[in-house]
Target: Citrate synthase
Amino acid sequence: STGIITLDPGYKNTGSCESAITYLDGEKGILRYRGYKIEDLAEKADFLEVAYLLIFGELPTKEQLNKFHNDIKEHLEVDEDIKKIVDSFPRTAHPMGVLSSLTSALTAFNPSVVDINSEEDMYNAVVKIMGKFPVLAAWTLRRRNSKPYDYGDSELGYVENILCLMFKKPNEKYKINPKVVDALDKLLILHADHEQNCSTSTVRIVGSSHAGLFASLSAGVSALWGPLHGGANQAVIEMLESIKQDGGDTAKYMEKAKDKEDPFRLMGFGHRVYKNFDPRAKIIKKSADDVLADLGVNDPVLTIAKSLEKQALEDDYFVKRKLYPNVDFYSGIIYRALGIPTEMFTVMFALGRLPGWIAQWREMRLKQEPIGRPRQIYVGENQREFVSLDKR
Ligand code: SDX
Model:
């Protein structure tokens, strides 16, 4: 018992776990990474610092951070044969499906990260995947756009190089507005971990069988892809766009969201744990205003989003069910303003969540947790006698 929640001693990895990484209080809308408030980290730290904090438990010194980044840069390169795998996908393949496959393929090219028996093995696996994952993520977009696969510019910062990997034109020195980099850095921090959400639980349970880190992360990417989870950020923009196409009649869509016969859901609203405002959504909403103003972008879907939010906060159906905007409601508006295509939004979520997945996998393996084995309540048939085919 940590004084916060007490787990039944018999819980033995039934899918619930003890963790020292992220604390959230859904009623009070509190989120902390290793004890630090998300509001402070989003304002005062950068993404690589937060990645280091989540994975190793402490904010890094300047030397530790420089070494971490340099070690990551040492491992950007992937085996040239992976480019053949990227080329084997149709250009129209969803980037999350490609990314999950490429992440799993890394295991075939890096067998050394299958078994982790020491802190040194662990550190090497961490810097390898922190280096290679953004490259593979960017190559999913370059495949769609028929652009060459390269490694960006190692002179750039970690987050800046993610943008460079995605958008750099051949033979150009990549330059990007620092405000765009800051906005993306903040978004990635806000997505970095979120305790035992669907994709993180997937990474932990796959890793609990002692499957390697890369194989476990590949499973996490697949889980995040779902529109009820990380795929919601793409679904939100598609929803806002269709409302705009339909004349911007937000009241009509509010009614649709409440109609049990109508499959329409207000994407970006509701949360399994937050029954108050998602603290990340508050920060992202303000950042959306700032980024669009800084970049001089006027995006009509932002107006539609704010209208939906205002109506929902005053509507008994949503208030009674404690449905508030979540992390996905405004993030897509910023990604779009940064020039990131809609089909890459969930990939951006995965890039942010990577250190959280790694941290949770590392914690589970260092604690030598037993193999995951969720239990069930059987509600099927009692025992019955077999009936041969000719008598059925
Ligand atoms: C993420 O777990 C995490 O931490 C996830 C995440 C992370 O950082 O990892 O925070 C990231 O996945 C955020 C959530 C993104 N998904 C969406 O925005 C999709 C839309 N949201 C819903 O599908 C839903 O709210 C969930 C999936 C997020 C939560 O589902 P729950 O907690 O299982 O809620 P529920 O389905 O039991 O709904 C409770 C009630 C139902 O009505 P009643 O049956 O009680 O009458 O609320 C209604 C639902 O119909 N409801 C909605 C709604 N969400 C719930 N009604 C309309 N629109 C919605 N979005």
